[in-house]
Write a structure and sequence with these properties.
The structure holds two protein chains of two kinds.
Chain A: H1 3-9, H2 12-15, H3 24-28, H4 30-34, H5 41-49, H6 73-77, H7 84-99, H8 103-109, H9 111-118, H10 122-130, H11 132-142, H12 158-165, E1 180-184, H13 186-191, H14 194-206, E2 210-212, H15 221-225, H16 229-248, E3 252-255, H17 258-270, H18 277-285, E4 286-288, H19 289-298, E5 311-316, H20 319-324, H21 329-334, E6 340-344, H22 363-379, E7 385-387, H23 390-400, E8 404-405, H24 407-423
Helix pairs in contact in A: 5-7, 14-24, 16-18, 17-18
Chain B: E1 4-9, H1 13-24, E2 29-33, H2 57-65, H3 72-92, E3 97-99, E4 106-109, E5 115-118, E6 120-122, E7 137-142, H4 150-159, E8 169-174, H5 187-195, H6 197-210, E9 217-221, H7 229-240, E10 244-247, H8 254-269, E11 273-276, E12 280-286, E13 289-295, E14 302-311, E15 321-323, E16 329-331, E17 338-339, E18 361-362, E19 376-378, H9 388-391, H10 394-416
Helix pairs in contact in B: 1-8, 1-10, 2-3, 3-10, 6-7
Classes of the chains: A alpha/beta, B alpha/beta.
Chain lengths: ~425, ~425
């Protein structure tokens, strides 16, 4: 039985009947910890749910549910199995359906559109992103906080690199499913962090896998978080249409963003009610990349010849990763790297929560939520930090000044060091 | 997932304590729980044993150990080192305690103005254990805080019998600065405010101003800080100029949150791992041995392989045991046999009397091993034979059973090595 089965047993809002009003969810909520405006998961969830009608047209008794950042920590803390975060996300979506959404929310959720506009204009667009006047205008006109963590656009998309490389994109060109994986790059790798995608491909190929990069779009999570379910369903439908044939043919779908992979595994079904065979096949086939590498290691199939990386590394497991229920595979992989002193941030949430920390009216909340994490990262003296979700990386980096990378970036670099040492033994260190 | 030496299932006092001790002993430990547990609902003190008539917790343990079905019949010898170990661990994380197994069980006031016996309490509550010697007690309430009513508690305490208690009990209501502007005033919002030094100074001055002259001790709602608790307590005694103690009230329990956090940090510091939020959904067996458990996950389950498995999932109230409409009861993780009265005896006329279903628990041997599982241990309130509410032994049994299981496991690991 998986989390999905639990959701299937009871439509999430029905699970609120199991609430015993113990307030444990409120004690772990990072948002209500820092702002009195949000009464906490119990009040806007199980408590308010009793007053919400079955139709999306019914008025919500509690608009403060929109302050929920969607981190999901409440659902995991609940001793009674109430799907609190899922219930609250649906309540927000109902509110958005009824009251409409801002242009800002529709725009910052449409990451594919942003990348389509921004990448061709990257040098110019990135000057704009760094320009205080442009950011001030963005704040006043759009409501995107002037200091909100926005990553610079890539000069070239990951897909264009893949095309130039002649990489496989179709089922017809795919090899043996046991030695071939589908890479789900998501919008962030495509438009903002293509180097991470190249590192992922390099590691997969090094471990004997062929990679296919089929047609895909943003997973839709930013739309889900903003209550824009119709737009999210359109993204999801196109992704499922493209990915399901691979899943059914036995290919694993691997992603480097724990947010995207969690959307594929869980949120398409739990939030968007996409319960068809395609959604189930894709969910069952989807792996977080560190989860996959650790699975290979458990089977003795991972190339464990990592080169030394003598450095302290603060690692922040993002909320979305924790919702996977797969432990912290990056930490297990870091343990294989000689010299690497990785340590868990032991802090709940960085505050960014996707697009939440960009919004002018939420930015301060997001900063306050992440403040203890930022202090730990700064105090560590580390030259960089690691985290598996993109918007969390951008938040940590912009709030601490410490470059923050995906664990895969660290592992790829470690492999390269091993190669360099093998070729030039005098370079061997540590 | 790399193999662990031990998987502990459950994140209450028993599971946390067992995981911490095993990790300190050098075992690789993975603690898995379906959610947070009772720490956040309870008072944060240690109920080791206080059956009616007991003079100290040690005496209470002795009396309970004489009951042929009580877990203390096996665990009594472990109580002292278990409690010592727990207090040492808590102190290492900044959570000091007062009292001991040999301190007299004395009546201390509750948030509703009743009395309960206690002898080991966190430092913030421990002034309630000291002899009253002619001192009075003033209970302080906060105007916007609705989970503790000082006047009500003071009236109940003043009208009831309190042997060797304070000379008088009065109440004072205080307006804490800035709380009028808040939407939400509960124990944890106040505790977080007390963590801020500037606000705390103003709040404590406001409390000092509301106290009657004299040397009466001060009973405050248990909200004296979370992250800076020790400083808050020291500032409170300094600014109020008298002995101060916290009185826990409705959940969320701030003392319980402190306890949970201290043990959680202890486990992580000893390289243990914790995953909360995912229930165990299946078990792999090889004959009478459990080889792995699987926890639910977003898609495929997480396989946790280990040499040993400790069940700390709670009794029927903690949902470690499930009742079914047909009257059947099952232990939820391993499906162990559960002893229980028949369905028509599940009712009791007096809500404060021991409930018949409290007897519904997992059968184990003296080493806490359940029948039919060679590498499993059962600890905490899933153990049979106790009535925690009136014997007040839940924390002691949790700690002693956790310690027994950890010792037993360490012994079998040493034997295997």
């Amino acid at each position: 039985m998986t989390f999905h089965d639990a959701a299937a047993r009871a439509f999430p809002p029905f699970s609120t009947d199991a609430c015993i009003k113990c307030n444990v969810c409120t004690t772990v909520c990072p948002v209500s910890r820092v702002t009195d405006e949000f009464p906490g998961p119990k009040y806007v969830g199980p408590q308010a749910q009793r007053f919400r009608g079955p139709s999306v047209a019914d008025d919500s008794p509690d608009h403060s549910v929109d302050l929920c950042s969607g981190c999901g920590i409440c659902t995991r803390a609940c001793p009674a199995g109430v799907l609190i975060a899922e219930t609250n996300n649906r309540a927000r979506a109902a509110m958005v359906t009824q009251r409409g959404s801002s242009l800002r929310n529709r725009l910052i959720s449409d990451t594919d559109l942003l990348a389509r506009l921004g990448v061709p204009l990257a040098p110019l667009a990135n000057i704009g992103l760094r320009n205080p006047v442009a950011r001030w205008v963005g704040e006043k006109v759009l409501g995107v906080h002037r200091r909100g963590p926005l990553a610079p656009f890539a000069r070239r998309t990951f897909r264009s690199w893949w095309k130039q490389r002649g990489g496989a994109t179709t089922l017809a060109s795919a090899g043996d499913p046991s030695k071939t994986v589908v890479y789900f790059h998501g919008c962030a790798v495509n438009g903002f962090e293509p180097d991470l995608g190249r590192d992922a491909v390099e590691i997969l190929e090094r471990n004997g896998y062929s990679v296919i990069v089929p047609r895909q779009e943003c997973c839709g999570l930013p739309f889900i978080s903003n209550g824009l379910y119709d737009q999210a369903r359109r993204k999801a439908a196109r992704n499922l249409a493209s990915l399901a044939e691979f899943a059914r043919a036995g290919y694993r779908i691997v992603g480097t963003s724990t947010s995207c992979t969690h959307a594929l595994k869980a949120e398409y079904r739990e939030m968007l009610d996409l319960s068809g065979a395609d959604a189930t096949a894709v969910a069952d086939a989807t792996w977080d990349m560190c989860e996959l590498l650790l699975d290979l290691h458990d089977r003795g199939e991972l190339d464990a010849r990592f080169g030394p990386m003598v450095e302290p590394l603060p690692y922040h497991p993002p909320c979305q990763l924790k919702s996977h229920g797969i432990g912290t595979p990056a930490m297990d992989l870091f343990a294989l790297v000689p010299g690497l002193r990785a340590f868990d941030s032991d802090h709940d949430c960085c505050g960014a929560a996707g697009t939440y920390g960009l919004k002018v009216e939420r930015w301060q909340i997001a900063q306050d939520v992440g403040a203890p994490l930022f202090a730990k990262v700064r105090a560590s003296g580390a030259v960089r930090a690691a985290c598996d979700s993109e918007t969390c990386r951008w938040q940590i980096e912009s709030s601490t000044g410490v470059p923050t990378v995906h664990p895969i970036t660290i592992l790829a670099e470690s492999y390269r060091r091993a190669d360099a040492a093998a070729e030039e033994p005098w370079r061997r260190v540590g | 997932m790399p193999r662990a030496d031990v998987v502990v299932i459950g994140a209450g006092l028993a599971g946390l304590s067992c995981a911490a001790e095993l990790a300190e002993r050098g075992a690789s430990v993975f603690l898995a729980a379906k959610g947070m547990a009772t720490t956040h609902w309870t008072h944060g003190g240690l109920d080791v044993a206080a059956p009616v008539g007991a003079s100290t917790a040690r005496d209470g343990v002795r009396r309970l150990a004489a009951i042929p079905t009580h877990p203390y019949r096996w665990l009594a010898p472990d109580v002292e080192s278990a409690v010592d170990g727990h207090l040492r661990r808590a102190a290492a994380e900044g959570l000091e305690h007062g009292g001991s197994l040999d301190a007299p069980l004395v009546p201390i006031p509750t948030a509703i103005g009743s009395l309960r016996p206690a002898s080991i309490l966190p430092a913030a509550q421990a002034a309630a254990l000291e002899p009253w010697n002619g001192h009075g007690l003033v209970l302080v309430g906060f105007r916007r805080y609705r989970d503790a009513w000082a006047q009500y508690a003071a009236r109940n305490l003043a009208s009831g019998a309190w042997p060797d208690g304070p000379t008088e009990v009065t109440a004072a209501e205080v307006d804490l600065p800035g709380t009028d502007d808040l939407h939400n005033v509960n124990a944890q919002t106040l505790a977080r405010l007390f963590d801020e030094p500037a606000w705390r100074e103003r709040a404590l001055r406001a409390i000092a101003g509301a106290l009657p002259a004299g040397s009466a001790r001060v009973g405050l709602p248990a909200v004296l800080g979370l992250t800076s608790h020790a400083e808050v307590l020291a500032d409170a005694e300094r600014i109020l100029g008298r002995r101060v103690f916290e009185i826990p009230s409705l959940p969320p329990s701030v003392p319980g949150m402190r306890l949970f956090d201290a043990l959680r940090r202890r486990i992580l510091a000893a390289a243990g791992r914790i995953q909360i939020g995912f229930d165990v959904v299946s078990v792999e067996r090889e004959g009478a041995r459990i080889s792995a458990v699987h926890t639910e996950a977003a898609s495929r389950t997480l396989r946790l392989a280990a040499d040993a498995f400790v069940l700390a999932t709670g009794g029927i109230a903690g949902a470690g045991i499930r009742a079914h409409p047909d009257g059947g009861l099952t232990e939820r993780v391993f499906g162990l046999p559960v002893s229980a009265p028949p369905r028509d005896q599940w009712f009791s006329d007096d809500p404060l009397e021991p409930h018949p279903l409290e007897a519904a628990e997992v059968e184990v041997d003296a080493e806490l091993r359940p029948a039919g599982v060679d590498n499993g241990w059962v600890i905490g309130s899933a153990l049979p034979g106790m009535h925690c509410l009136d014997q007040r032994c839940g924390d002691g049994v949790a700690l002693a059973s956790a310690h027994r299981a950890a010792r037993s496991l360490a012994g079998s690991r040493a034997a295997a090595a």
